[in-house]
């Protein structure tokens, strides 16, 4: 995206992060925005903003760790800001999958593969994740494999996983959403 922060890109005149906020707000108790740049712009949305507590460019696990460290609830629900088509029952389905499997993490499944940044994690995993990152590991699926994992089935909502990584994908999403 030419170095531009994806969460602040406009889709129909609204920053991508605002879609996640609007869709998640009725589903969760608290909202937290994980960002490492443009912090003032993200704070303007009225929610807590945190930056990675470890390393530089450690990827999504660093953001998950920070959320686990500051969370005041027993779970952290993760979504990427570049996937603006969350269903209204996203949190419920993730939580149900976790409970049904007596798991520590639930991960969204698109019918073909897991989508690891769409996850629900128990906050008690913070030490495990901190140790994993401190050991130099960065692969999200390898850390997930160390824990009881549930697959939350979203095969019926493949649009959930449509994300925006290029200007062309942003333009296509804009066209498709009318």
Can you walk me through this structure?
There is one protein chain. With 178 residues, this protein is of the alpha/beta class. The protein has a single domain (6-176), classed as Spore Coat Polysaccharide Biosynthesis Protein SpsA, Chain A, CATH 3.90.550. Helix content is 34%, strand content 19%. It has seven helices and eight strands. The chain has helices at residues 16-24, 39-43, 60-70, 90-100, 126-134, 140-144, 167-176, and strands spanning 10-11, 14-15, 32-34, 48-50, 75-78, 105-109, 114-122, 149-153. The protein has a four-stranded mixed beta sheet, with helices on both faces. Helix 3 (60-70) packs antiparallel against helix 5 (126-134).
Mean pLDDT across the residues is 93
How many DSSP helices? Answer: 7
* Helix-strand string: EEHEHEHEHEEHHEH
Alpha carbon gap, first and last residue: 22 Å
SS content category: alpha/beta
Detail the poorly predicted runs: none
Q: What percent of the residues sit in helical stretches (DSSP H or I)?
A: 25-40%
Question: Which value, in Å, is the CA radius of gyration?
Answer: 16 Å
CATH topology: Spore Coat Polysaccharide Biosynthesis Protein SpsA, Chain A
> Which architecture does the CATH hierarchy give at level 2?
Alpha-Beta Complex
* Oligomeric state of the chains in view: single chain
In one word, what is the shape?
globular
Strand order of the largest sheet: 5-7-6-8
Write down the domain tally.
1
For the biggest sheet, the summary is: 4 strands, mixed
